[in-house]
């Protein structure tokens, strides 16, 4: 009698469209799924940043008969950002699939524009907005309904300090035609918001002495 030895193939990733990078807006639910195959059905465990998945009722794992393992994350938090690894093992070996999850934070303005400013002609106008958000929000400065384009007298800067992003608009040698309402739109892939409108008035730089 001959002994028959069957080769049990090691696990294989079968997902048709692998999602190696995924994002989720903070506070929303998200899922990460990977499908594995193997003659000996693989067992799947999940890791977070190469460590066991945190114990939390916000995390739930569901495995289906077709070899799909799905990790559900409820009300995603900033700390959930990182690398999630689905590791499939059977008697023949192992296979793994990784997804990097990015947590998106919608922009929030923490220091807004003043409602109005009066600036002396030929002086420098400086408008500043501070915002937070992940990824870094972009900004579009507006005068009325028109986008502002940097030219010789107009300068835009963006700096970051810890989690804050500081956006500055400067117009040097301010002229009467620079009067108007200024505002900005702050946005990233999580959403956008409008700043306050700041009314700029240009005053004369000629001082007159009172007569007796």
Automatic annotation (TrEMBL):
Keyword Transport among UniProt keywords: no
Domain Ig-like: 11-102, 107-201
One GO location term (cellular component): plasma membrane
Lineage: superkingdom: Eukaryota
Record's keyword terms, sorted: Disulfide bond, Immunoglobulin domain, Signal
GO annotation terms (biological process): homophilic cell adhesion via plasma membrane adhesion molecules
InterPro entries: Cell_Adh-Cytoskel_Orgn, Ig-like_dom, Ig-like_dom_sf, Ig-like_fold, Ig_I-set, Ig_sub, Ig_sub2
PROSITE patterns referenced in this protein's UniProt entry, alphabetically: IG_LIKE (PS50835)
Protein name in the entry: Ig-like domain-containing protein
């Amino acid at each position: 009698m001959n002994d028959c030895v069957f080769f049990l193939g090691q696990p294989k990733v079968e997902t048709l469209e692998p999602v190696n990078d995924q994002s989720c807006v903070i506070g929303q639910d998200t899922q990460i799924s990977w499908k594995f195959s193997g003659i000996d059905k693989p067992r799947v465990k999940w890791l977070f940043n190469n460590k066991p998945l945190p114990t939390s009722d916000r995390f739930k794992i569901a495995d289906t008969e077709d070899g799909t393992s799905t990790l559900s994350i409820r009300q995603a938090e900033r700390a959930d950002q990182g690398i999630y690894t689905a590791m499939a093992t059977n008697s023949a070996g192992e296979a793994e699939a990784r997804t990097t999850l990015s947590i998106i934070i919608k922009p929030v303005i923490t220091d807004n524009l003043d409602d109005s400013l009066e600036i002396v002609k030929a002086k420098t106008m400086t408008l500043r907005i501070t915002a937070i958000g992940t990824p870094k929000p972009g900004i579009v400065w507006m005068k009325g309904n028109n986008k502002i384009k940097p030219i010789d007298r107009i300068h835009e800067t963006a700096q970051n300090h810890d989690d804050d992003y500081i956006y500055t608009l400067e117009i040097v040698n301010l002229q009467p035609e620079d009067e108007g309402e200024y505002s900005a739109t702050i946005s990233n892939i999580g959403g956008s918001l409008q700043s306050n409108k700041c009314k700029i008035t240009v005053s004369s730089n000629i001082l007159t002495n009172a007569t007796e």
